[in-house]
Each structure stands twice: as C-alpha cells, then as structure tokens.
Amino acid sequence: MSDGATGLIETEAGAEPRNGERRRGIDRVIMLLEALLRHRAPMRVGDIAKMIGAPRSTTYEIVNSLLEAEMLENVGTEGYVYFGRAMHLFGWAYSHHNAHYRRIIETLDKMAAETGETVQLCGLRGNKYIVLDCRDSSGPFRISSDVGVEVPIPWTASGRLLLGHMSEEELKDFIPPGDYKLPDGRVIAPAEFFSDVALARRQGFSETVALADRFTWCMAAPIRDSYGAINKTLCFVLPVDTPEARRSELLALLCERARGLSLAGS
Hints:
The chain is α+β, with helices and mostly antiparallel strands. The chain folds into 2 domains: about 1-95, Arc Repressor Mutant, subunit A, CATH 1.10.10; about 100-260, Beta-Lactamase (2-Layer Sandwich). It has helices at about 5-10, 20-40, 45-50, 55-70, 85-95, 100-115, 155-160, 170-175, 190-205, 245-260; strands spanning about 45, 70-75, 80-85, 120-125, 130-135, 150, 205-210, 215-225, 230-240. A 6-stranded antiparallel beta sheet has the order 6-5-4-9-8-7. A 3-stranded antiparallel beta sheet has the order 1-3-2. The longest helix is centred in the N-terminal third of the chain and has 20 residues, at about 20-40. This is Transcriptional regulator, IclR family. Keywords: DNA-binding, Transcription, Transcription regulation.
C-alpha cells in the first residue's frame, strides 16, 4: 500500500477533517477500497469500518453507494462485499487505452510462450514492491506470484533497480528497518543492500538468489519512462537450480525486451 493510503487507513475516526467534510468523505472511499485491496478477500462492512477507523454508519453509507455504482458487490448472504464489475471495467479501460501498457502485456505473453518461464511486470507502491502483472511458468516446477501483494523491497531483484536513483541516505530513510528481515528469519545487512543497489545501477540489471523464496533465482531489467526514470521492471522468476548457460540466455533476452519497451535510452 502506498504511504498516502497507509496514512489514510491509520487516521482516527475522530480526527478533524483536513479540507472539509466533502474531502473527508472522498478520503474514506479511498480508504475503504485500499482496505479491500490489502485484505484481498471479501469483508463484512463492520470489519471494514474497524480497519479504516470509521463509524459503522458512515461505512455502510459508503458501501451502499459503491454497491449502487457496481464498484462493489455482495458476496454470499452473510454481509460480505468485494470489488464489483465496474472495477473490472476501469482496469480494462486502463490496460486497453494505454498503448505502452498494451505493448508490455504483449511482451509478457510472448516471453512466457517462448521460454516457458514465469515472467513478471513489477513496480513500487509507496515503499513496497508489487507484481503488476504476471505470466506463470508452464513447466513442471511452477512458480507463481500474487499480483498486487506488497512485499518488502530488499527481498527483490527489481527493488534494487527501482531505487537506483536514491542516495544511501535516501535509502536509509525510505526502507523500513523491519523490511530487511526475510521470511525465513535471515536478515539482509543494509550496507549489503545499498551495495546491491549501486551494482544494479552500474550493470543495468539485477539478480537475486533464494531471498523471498529459497527455491527461486530472480532477475530483473529496467523499463525506462520517457525521462529515463525506472518505474517498472521486467523480470524472470526461475528455479534456483537453473543451469548457468540457461540463466545467461534468459538474462540477455530479458534485457533486450526491457530495452525495447523503454521509452528512453539507457
């Protein structure tokens, strides 16, 4: 979740509105949608109200409005709600009317078909890493990823590229201290991570081995915007025992396709 969204969810129900009741109502709609996205499953309205720190009556009013707009829909008969079909239409409109994004999706499809490996489009949301889109491996060792799930940046190859514009001091301020601890309890030394970021900046790609998952080898290449900034990456997620020759072949393909998707030269 983005820093701004986190701040909204943590706002107390009794806090003074910053820009009047109208702004506060809009904020709560955003908070509610962010809460559902973060939970990644249907929720009861009362539970949403607790999560966003809003009165139940206000939350019910917002939910009813979103149900009427088909932005939410009822799930089952026990009061659960989740995203509705209007949200799908918003996503469809974005993906089909953004020419660059269409090119990226076409590239994901093509790379997955050509290689049989898991291919991802990755980026940042606030101070977390997320998978924006993914095509899973068709091989016997299937590696899949949850699109939209927020992951600590130091766990990822992409994060080392996406933060390449930051100084060491900026990295210290940006990464929460707890995010250096891996799922299995190992801890990445901040200095080691800063060094990895600098290396990724110099070589134009990043690879990590057995960090978030001990069985995976991850590689990422930058997709640059029209200003040359890196706000998306193209990635392969491979079995950790993938032969070196195969990894080299895939890394070359990854860098080539990422350059082809970039809107500015490296």
